[in-house]
Specification:
The complex is a heterotetramer of chains A (about 325), B (about 500), C (about 280) and D (about 270). With about 325 residues, chain A is mainly α. Helices cover about 80% and strands about 0% of the residues of chain A. Classes of the chains: A mainly alpha (about 325), B alpha+beta (about 500), C alpha/beta (about 280), D mainly alpha (about 270). The interface between B and D is medium-sized, with 31 and 25 residues.
Chain lengths: ~325, ~500, ~280, ~270
């Protein structure tokens, strides 16, 4: 009963947040100075021409009418058409999302695959030189801008060695081999930094877990350190690690924009940057809304999971 | 839970769209020719040549997908295309074009007088962009004399009209096309439009039934790069066959290996202008403007900002226009003279001006350079970098600036200084009169009057013409026929050939 | 023959005063030894040293012989085989000593599977059997529960079952009842008393009364040293060390007159540093 | 060992602070002026060489150090000044009003610094201030959450209960009891956020959303160096190195502080 009620309240907050976020997004994007008509017309424009174009694009209707129109479309999963090119926004975002999803998904996967063993190692060997060295490496990884690393990767592997393409994207459906080749460098540069972030997280989580009583119990019944960590430690780290990964994923969809820029990848982040620079508000709103909602959704799911799944955490949650 | 489920539904829909979109991509099994990948910076804003303005659209489509009656070659000469010949009446009030009998659209429909009239009427009709409609102002009636002959009757003589017909203004579209031209272009050129992935690329393929010399490449991809350095690395790693125009000339050294790259340098129509806001009190004084002109070492600026690749110009005319005159020496670099002029104008103790530049490749660095040099003569330039849309809004639209740097890439844009409400706030009646006389007079008159007008701008120091953007095309040695100059709005694929 | 012989065992962390300072004791195959002392006296470190679970930076010297085998310096690989099988341990924190994300039955079964993979088929039965033996009334339900669904007493019973599942020869109990309320404490002590009958046990506690219930012999630890050891009744009757006397006095509130302050260890013994 | 992390962090920060402090009063050359021929390699008098326009790299690096510190200080201080009181308030109250700030900061959390900066730069233009504000706003949720959780922890202590019962006003409790107790955690967060802010500024400047040409921040220098990657890759080295040193300094400081306050932090986080 109380759990249900708490979830209910959380759900109400969630829906409220979605609505508030959508309104904020629409408000902010509509207050941006500059307009699409001017951008389309460029240094060729006359004021009359710009006004006529605005009229044609429906930009002269009242603010609230436009907001409601927009939300009505959004709830039917229809983001309308690009002011700039007249193309439907949905397929555009879908194709951009595909690129970002691969980039961020594979980058995160690689980062996790690197981070779990590396972080665990750094934790287990934290009093030894090699463990400290691993920690130091992750410190360096954290301090280097990912795009900077990307630039150097391009210089070395694409330009000097010529092993891999410097940028661009080829769809999996077109050529799986090319798809992979094009993603190696960007995924690597993303994973380099993400794995540093995650491995430090894993390290501290493993240290925490190894101080837990159940960890000692596991050791006392005959598990090796690695065995106990794998069998009992990771299970306990998993939820919080998943939370971190989930939230990172959502923010990275835009955060990867620097990588997209370096590697000329047509992802969501660069679509957003491009749309903002053209004041193509339909696309800006659609992308920002999806991203913000995604973060809210993940937040919500994490909270609810904590409430439902792990009563130990719920008690902690009650405290908060 | 309802709301969140609809959200999940949306995510699912996104995933499905991705999957379906990819699966249903048309598979073309036709034998393809040699593929050509071209790196470009400016993406189209739409695909309809008549309703869209901006340089991206004709760059890809003009002469490649759409053709015109007459075309502009890379030396600035007007040549026949769909019209095999044309003539003008002595009173210069009527043009008659004879269409090439072989000409036909990609759909197979003939390019006849009817199609031309329909295209032209559309270009000066309601739906056309104003800048295009205005170009048709001198034309009174358009008539199909017979199936192969079109006549334009003018209300006043116009020297600019024939030239304008070489651009989007004169593009001929297929009247039998039913799809929206903004998404599905239909022309008579050697290439057909295939797809446009926004923010990424436009793909063309050979028009198998082309009426003239067949296309030598297929498919042709125009790939767009927001970051010029990303374009360079793509070229260096072999993903591109050409860079249509190198916008970071400092990096030209990367392509110095003649075994792997050929470099083609020429001129464009892009005058990089240090614009003054004439509404500013200090800048309304010609002595201040002249002082600034003297204070900037333009050769040094080109050397450090543009890799020494731009040509110095003295007015709003590129060397490929018939009325070009070298005025680049009128204001030599002379800081002492500049200080003198400033003192005369009453600004001996200093002057602070805002220099608001757009975030285009030349903007911020030339801003820094100019600010550094103006500091020497006692002018404090507060440099501010504006995102392009903001620049258009605030500087171009609201005239909220003191000085700015921008490249005017439109061809034959001397008239920009005569336009009503131009963003410089420049107004000079004598100059305006010269322009009108030039358009209505004879061809010789035109050259004379425009020379005079250009000179007038220079003497008035209406702006500082920093340099002319060079055309730097990088290609692999396998590509022949690359043009040095880039002076039409088109990236003309028809001159290119594969060297075997 | 003694199953456990600890001789001159010293444990040091860094350059600090030794946490355990050359202690010695022995334990017969069915003996029970209580180790009593306040926190920080080194009693828990002693039991962890026997289990080989001290942190990596601990320096151990002296000798621990278990069943004739030297444990100090034993390779981890060998040690691991002993833990949970021949030697096991019951910890003091029943609330946290079980993995919260794994069902109790599985955690218990794991202990058997870990050392006796050959019994794989019969593990579930063994688990239910053990849960029943430690006094859990609905073994099947408890086996399928998560630790947080159990009461403190049930959890401690499950931990006892885990410690005993492989019939170890030596069981170390580290304050097994401290965190429980008095009533449950009593039940668990009775359970341990029964279940540990045929094994050697080291029973670590700060509570003299608790130790007295299960152990005939006691060693008193103070600042890492054993200050006296012997028969528990004899020591209670005639403590030789003032600290022991203090422990005894503070445990007998019933003998204190109503208007007198409660006795504490400090009344009998003052640590050297503070003197 | 623990002190080692702290000391290394402080040393790295020290280098940046010294660069910035000296840069305030003296740089080898005027960083905004062209004082040599372009793209000179490191040597004399231009110790780290000159950039593409011919300005002195060391002078620009020094001048960038102070902006880098300014960005860090302003954005972290701004986030803390807004976020900490909200977090403490939320931690000290019960009921839905206590949830409100947390939910609002959840919404804010949905707008990462980059997203905010893109929108903000479009709204008011890219500048050092835009970057600072965007980073600052994006950092607020971290402070709200942390301050809230830490306040809960502190509120459960007996002496706070006592203070509340004896009628001491809430604000006084917050200032006298809660704030000093949660200060260490906030210090660690501030240090970590500082590092993030420096990195974020570099990223924003690289995209052209941060500092303009008037401010030679390290991110800006990195962006300008892009054009010369092949002629003079060393130009991309100096600012990249400076960013790494500063970020690492603050990260290590954060870690060192965390280790120092370890027992208290463990129960709070």
């Amino acid at each position: 009963m109380t759990v249900l009620r708490r979830v209910g309240i959380r759900l109400a907050w969630f829906i409220g947040s979605l609505a508030l976020a959508s309104f904020l997004i629409f408000l902010i994007t509509n207050k941006l100075p500059g307009n699409i008509a001017q951008v389309i017309l460029g240094t060729n424009a006359s004021p009359g021409e710009a006004a006529a174009l605005e009229e044609r694009l429906g930009l002269t209707k009242p603010f609230f009418t436009r907001y409601l129109d927009w939300m009505a479309g959004v709830l039917r999963f229809d983001f309308g058409v690009s002011y700039y090119s007249g193309e439907a926004i949905n397929p555009l975002i879908a194709s951009r999302f595909e690129v970002s999803a691969w980039l961020v998904g594979l980058g995160m996967l690689l980062a996790v695959v690197i981070a779990i063993p590396v972080g665990s190692y750094a934790a287990m060997r934290r009093r030894h030189a090699d463990g400290v060295a691993v920690s130091a490496l992750s410190q360096i990884g954290l301090a280097i801008p990912a795009f900077w690393a990307g630039i150097w990767l391009v210089i070395v592997f694409a330009v000097n060695l010529g092993w891999l393409p410097a940028g661009g994207y080829v769809s999996w459906w077109e050529s799986p081999g090319e798809w992979l080749l094009h993603l190696i460098l960007p995924v690597t540069s993303l994973a380099l930094v993400q794995s540093s972030v995650l491995s430090r997280y894993v390290r501290s989580a493993v240290i925490d877990v190894s101080h837990e009583d159940y960890f000692r119990t596991a050791r006392a019944v005959g598990w090796s350190r690695i065995g106990a960590l794998w069998r009992h430690g990771m299970r306990n780290i998993a939820i919080s690690l998943l939370t971190v990964i989930g939230l990172q994923l959502a923010t990275l969809l835009v955060g990867a924009i620097l990588i997209e820029q370096v590697f000329a990848l047509p992802g969501l982040g660069s679509a957003l940057l491009m749309a903002v620079s053209r004041r193509d508000l339909g696309i800006v709103q659609a992308i920002v809304l999806l991203l913000v909602w995604a973060v809210l959704l993940i937040n919500f799911l994490v909270d609810v999971t904590y409430q439902l799944v792990d009563p130990r955490l719920r008690r902690r949650g009650e405290l908060q | 839970m309802r709301r969140s489920r609809s959200f999940l539904g949306m995510l699912l829909a996104v995933a499905l769209t991705v999957a379906l979109g990819a699966c249903t991509r048309p598979e073309t099994d036709e034998p393809r020719g040699r593929e050509l990948n071209i790196g470009a910076a400016t993406e189209p804003a739409g695909l309809d040549m008549i309703t869209t303005t901006g340089a991206g659209t004709p760059f890809v489509l003009l002469y490649n997908v759409y053709e015109t009656l007459v075309k502009l070659d890379n030396e600035g000469n007007i040549r026949p295309l769909l019209a095999s010949e044309w003539s003008q009446t002595p009173d210069r009030l009527s043009y008659t074009f004879s269409l090439d009998p072989a000409a036909k659209f990609a759909s197979g429909a003939p390019v006849d007088a009817d199609a031309v009239v329909k295209s032209f009427e559309r270009a000066r009709g309601e739906t056309a962009a104003e800048s295009i409609r205005l170009k048709w102002a001198p034309v009174d009636t358009i008539e199909a004399v017979d199936q192969r002959t079109v006549r334009l009757n003018l209300s006043r003589p116009s020297n600019g009209l024939l030239y304008d017909l070489t651009g989007p203004t004169g593009s001929i579209s297929d009247p039998t096309a039913t799809a929206d031209l903004n998404t599905t272009p239909a022309g008579s050129g050697p290439y057909k439009f295939v797809t446009w992935e926004q923010g990424s690329r436009v793909e063309l393929e050979a028009n198998a039934g082309y009426w003239g010399t067949p296309a030598r490449f297929s498919p042709v991809n125009f790939r767009y790069f927001a970051d010029p350095n990303a374009m360079n690395t793509a070229m260096l790693s072999g993903q591109l066959d050409m860079i249509s125009n190198l916008t970071v000339p400092q990096s030209i050294g990367q392509f110095s290996d003649a075994e792997k790259y050929t470099i083609h340098e020429g001129t464009t129509d892009g005058e990089v202008v240090l614009g003054f806001n004439h509404a500013n009190e200090a800048l309304s004084d010609v002595r201040v403007r002249q002082a600034i002109s003297h204070a900037i070492d333009r050769q040094a600026l080109v050397d450090s900002v543009w890799g020494g690749k731009g040509m110095l110009i003295g007015s709003m005319v590129p060397p490929t226009d018939p009325w070009f005159e070298d005025l680049s020496g009128v204001y030599p670099y002379d800081p002492d003279k500049a200080r003198e002029l400033l003192a005369e104008a009453g600004y001996a103790s200093g002057l602070t001006l805002r220099l608001r530049v757009p975030n285009l490749p030349y903007g911020p660095t030339s801003g820094r350079f100019i600010a550094a040099q103006l500091k020497d003569v006692g002018i404090t330039a507060e440099v501010e970098e504006l995102e392009w849309a903001r620049w258009l809004d605030q500087v171009y639209g609201q005239h909220d600036y003191d000085m700015t740097v921008v490249a005017h890439v439109e061809p034959r844009d001397l008239g920009a200084f005569a336009a009503e409400g131009n963003y410089w706030g420049y107004r000079n009646d004598a100059f305006n009169t010269l322009l009108t006389e030039a358009d209505t007079g004879t061809e010789a008159d035109q050259t004379e009057k425009l020379k005079e007008a250009a000179r007038m701008l220079t003497d008035d120091a209406a702006a500082v013409w920093l340099f002319l953007l060079p055309s730097i095309t990088i290609a692999t040695p396998a590509i022949a026929g690359v043009q040095d100059n880039q002076i039409s709005l088109s990236f003309d694929l028809t001159t290119l050939a594969a060297r075997s | 023959m003694n199953i456990l012989e600890v001789t001159d065992l010293t444990v040091r962390f860094g350059r600090n005063r030794p946490a355990v300072d050359s202690i010695s004791f022995t334990l017969g195959a069915h003996d029970r030894l209580g180790i009593i002392g306040q926190s920080g006296s080194g009693k828990s470190v002693t039991s962890l040293a026997i289990m080989g679970l001290l942190p990596e930076h601990a320096q151990v010297s002296g000798s621990i012989r278990f069943d004739g085998r030297e444990l100090v310096g034993l390779p981890e690989r060998e040690y691991r085989k002993l833990r949970g099988d021949a030697v096991s341990m019951v910890f003091q924190e029943p609330m946290t000593a079980l993995d919260p994300t794994m069902r109790v039955g599985r955690q218990l079964g794991e202990v058997v599977a870990l050392h006796h993979g050959e019994r794989r088929g019969s593990i579930r039965d063994g688990v239910l059997d053990w849960l029943g033996r430690v006094g859990i009334t609905e073994p099947a339900r408890i086996a399928d529960s998560y630790p947080h669904e159990l009461s403190g007493g049930q959890r401690q019973r499950a931990l006892v079952a885990m410690a005993l599942a492989n019939e170890p020869a030596l069981v170390l109990c580290d304050e097994p009842t401290t965190a429980l309320d008095v009533l449950v404490q009593r039940q668990i002590l009775r359970l341990l008393d029964v279940q540990l009958r045929d094994r050697a046990t080291v029973f670590v506690s700060h509570d003299l009364a608790v130790v007295r219930e299960v152990c005939p012999r006691v060693a008193v630890m103070l600042e890492g040293r054993i200050v006296e050891q012997g028969d528990i009744e004899q020591i209670i009757a005639e403590p030789r060390h003032p600290y022991t006397a203090g422990l005894i006095a503070s445990a007998r509130i019933d003998r204190v007159p109503r208007d007198q302050p409660l006795p504490s260890v400090a009344d009998f013994y003052t640590p050297a540093e503070e003197a | 060992m623990k002190r080692g992390t702290l000391n290394l962090g402080l040393t790295l920060i020290g280098i940046v602070v010294v660069l910035a402090a000296v840069g305030l009063v003296w740089t080898p050359f005027d960083p905004t002026k062209i004082t040599g021929s372009p793209l000179q390699p490191p040597g004399w008098p231009h110790v780290l060489g000159t950039d593409g326009l011919g300005a002195d790299v060391l002078s620009r690096l020094m001048s960038g150090a102070k902006i880098c510190l300014l960005v860090g200080i302003v954005s972290v201080a701004g986030a803390a000044v807004v976020g900490v009181p909200i977090g403490i308030f939320s931690g000290m109250t019960r009921g839905w009003i206590s949830d409100l700030p947390a939910r609002l900061s959840d919404i804010l959390y949905g707008f990462p610094a980059l997203l905010l900066a893109i929108l903000l730069a479009a709204a008011v233009g890219g500048s050092t201030w835009t970057a600072m504000i965007a980073i600052s706003v994006a950092t607020i949720p971290a402070f709200v959450r942390l301050a809230r959780a830490a306040t809960y922890q502190v509120m459960s202590h007996g002496y706070i209960e006592a203070a509340r019962v004896s009628g001491i006003p809430k604000v006084a409790i917050a200032v006298r009891h809660v704030l000093p107790n949660i200060a260490p955690v906030l210090g660690v967060q501030a240090s970590v956020s500082f590092g993030i802010a420096i990195l974020a500024e570099a990223g924003l400047s690289y995209l052209g959303l941060g500092s303009g040409p008037e401010a030679p921040t390290w991110g800006r220098m990195l962006r300008e160096a892009q054009d010369y990657l092949f002629n003079a890759p060393i130009l991309a080295l100096w600012p990249g190195l400076a960013i790494a040193v500063a970020t690492m300094g603050f990260n290590l400081l954060g870690d060192g502080l965390r280790d120092l306050f370890d027992p208290r932090l463990r129960e709070m986080s």
